Each structure stands twice: as structure tokens, then as C-alpha cells.
From TrEMBL:
UniProt similarity note: Belongs to the glycosyl hydrolase family 6.
Keyword Signal included in the entry's annotation: yes
EC number: 3.2.1.-
Lineage start: Bacteria, Bacillati, Actinomycetota, Actinomycetes, Kitasatosporales
Active site: 149
A GO term, aspect molecular function: hydrolase activity
Source organism of this protein record: Streptomyces ossamyceticus
Protein name: Glucanase
Record-linked Gene3D superfamilies: 1, 4-beta cellobiohydrolase
């Protein structure tokens, strides 16, 4: 039987704003059904350490990154998606731990940025994929980050494409509500340097946020926890004023220990941030991006592809240089 833990969690998870939060579509709290976060035994840092035990950087990467709970990203590379999410959440459940999953396969993914372009072949293909994603989780407890980048930039999209994306995201949230009752879904809300709070609140609401548990911030970015918390509170102020509800939010702290230098794509001099934990001004501080994984062919990762593990970048990120 799963252990119940952290009696102080209710206080830590409280929203900073004294506003009434919209009820989640899910009745169960996955953090209360587990005993801490899951360390992915197959994360890219662990794989690199296992393949390079004699490398002088291996010990630091193993101790500071590879054994930290962090998200696993799922997309077209994941094979049969229902089997993939079932295997991952099943392994976590067998250890009484809470897994973090990222769904990253929306049709026309990263349409305006391009570094991570791809995704499902059509809206209907995405609907089938995300349904199988949710079905693979089933009744197991989990956190899901839904489609990073999807609401951050509409600049190159026409109104029909925007409506299409909103429909895909709201449909995805509905699938989790029906098939994964012990999963908290966070819709991605970009970061403070991308879109103003009023615009983001509108985009979130129109894409189905009311039925999700909350929203996520700073994924694959470097802005400080304080900047993100202020932004999350501002988004909630807009949600409250316009639509009458607020939502919890989580912050990706995996690479924000030194804050941002204004660059988003493999900048130098960044540092890992606080490891996965409750609170910190948000509902949770999570490692969603794996430190050391490339943002694309740019910055200190020339010649790399998005998601490729770069050991020298990871090593320098531990020490902040």
C-alpha cells in the first residue's frame, strides 16, 4: 500500500495569492499517494555516466545531475506511446514514487521557433497519440507537463492554426480527465520573458486550463525562480479578474541557478537550480529539462540537436561557468 506523507504539504502547496482556485478535474492528489519523486533510471545523464565511467566529469555529473528526480520527455521517438507511458509510470509506482512526464508531440510543434520542430502528423494523429499517452498512465499517480512551447508564441500562426492548437490542447486535458484520474496536468505557459501575463492568461483559458490542474513555467529556460513566481502570480491575477478562477503553477528550476543572461539557446555560464521539491513560492519546483541537454544547434552547443546530452555543458552547469 502506498504511504501517505508530508503532513505539511498543504501549507507548502498553497498559492501565494489569496484567491479561490478552480477545482481540478481530478479528485486525487498524486503527491499524497506516493513517497517522493521518481528518479528516472534511464535519463540521458545516467546513460552518459554509465557509458563513460572513466571520464573525469562523470562523478560530478552522476552526483549532481543524474540521480536527481526529473522529467522524462515523450514524443515520436517513444515508440508505442501507451506502452511507453505505462512502463514508465508502472516502474515509478512499483517504488511508490511520483513520476514526471512531458508530452511533447503536438501537431506543428515549435512552429514559430523551429529548433524543436516536428510533432504528430495531423491534429487527429495527435488526438490518438495523447489518448494513448493518458491511457498508458491509467490510475497510477503522475504529473504531466503538457506541450512545452505550445502557447508561448502565436506570432507566425494564423487564427485557424491557433484555434486548431487550442482544440488539441483542450482535447488532451479531457483525455487525462477521463483516463488518468490520479494525474495532475500542467499546461505550459512559457516564461516571463516571452508573453505578458494578460495574454498568457487568455491563451491558457482558451486552451482549456479550467479543466487542468495548473500551469508550468520556465521549461528549458533560465529565468530565476523569483521572476517566475511573480509572473505566475500575475497570470493568476489575470485569470481571477477575467475568468473567476486561479490555478497552481510549477517552475522548471533545472537550469536557473544563475538566472538568465538574456539568451535562451545554450547560453554559457548557467547553473543548475534547486532540485525537485515542494513550495518555493510555487506549488512545486521541478527539474523538467535535463541539465546538459542541448536546446539546439546554437550557443555553447554548436553542431548539436535539441535534446542531445552535452557532458561539458552539464559539467560546467554544476559549477556555474
Amino acid at each position: 500500500m502506498r504511504r501517505r506523507f508530508r503532513t505539511l504539504m498543504a501549507a507548502l502547496c498553497a498559492l501565494p495569492l489569496a484567491l479561490a482556485a478552480a477545482p481540478s478535474a481530478h479528485a486525487a492528489d498524486p503527491t499524497s499517494l506516493t513517497s517522493g519523486f521518481y528518479v528516472d533510471p534511464d535519463n540521458s545523464a545516467k546513460r552518459w555516466v554509465a557509458a563513460n565511467p572513466g571520464d573525469g566529469r562523470a562523478s560530478a555529473i552522476n552526483n549532481s545531475i543524474a540521480n536527481t528526480p526529473m522529467a522524462r520527455w515523450f514524443g515520436s521517438w517513444s515508440g508505442s506511446i501507451g506502452s511507453a507511458t505505462s512502463s514508465f509510470t508502472g516502474a515509478a509506482d512499483s517504488r511508490d514514487k511520483l513520476p514526471i512526464l512531458v508530452a511533447y508531440n503536438v501537431y506543428n510543434r515549435d512552429y514559430c521557433g523551429g529548433h524543436s520542430a516536428g510533432g504528430a502528423s495531423s491534429p487527429s494523429a495527435y488526438a490518438s497519440w495523447i489518448s494513448q499517452f493518458a491511457g498508458g498512465i491509467g490510475n497510477r499517480p503522475a504529473l504531466v507537463i503538457l506541450e512545452p512551447d505550445s502557447l508561448g508564441d502565436y506570432g507566425c500562426m494564423n487564427q485557424a492554426q491557433i484555434a486548431e492548437r487550442q482544440s488539441m490542447l483542450s482535447g488532451a486535458v479531457s483525455q487525462f480527465s477521463r483516463q488518468a484520474p490520479n494525474t495532475w496536468v500542467y499546461m505550459d505557459a512559457g516564461n516571463p520573458a516571452w508573453t505578458d501575463a494578460a495574454t498568457m492568461a487568455k491563451r491558457l483559458h482558451e486552451a482549456g486550463l479550467r479543466q487542468a490542474h495548473g500551469f508550468s513555467l520556465n521549461i528549458s529556460n533560465y529565468l530565476t525562480t523569483g521572476e517566475n513566481t511573480a509572473y505566475g502570480n500575475a497570470v493568476n491575477s489575470q485569470l481571477s479578474a477575467r475568468y473567476g478562477y486561479t490555478k497552481p503553477f510549477v517552475v522548471d528550476t533545472s537550469r536557473n541557478g544563475n538566472g538568465s543572461n538574456g539568451q535562451w539557446c545554450n547560453p554559457s555560464g548557467r547553473r543548475i537550480g534547486p532540485a525537485t521539491q515542494m513550495g518555493g513560492g510555487a506549488e512545486m519546483l521541478l527539474w523538467i529539462k535535463v541539465p546538459g541537454e542541448s536546446d539546439g544547434n546554437c550557443g555553447v552547443g554548436p553542431g548539436s540537436s535539441a535534446g542531445q546530452f552535452l557532458p561539458e555543458v552539464a559539467y560546467k552547469m554544476i559549477y556555474g561557468y
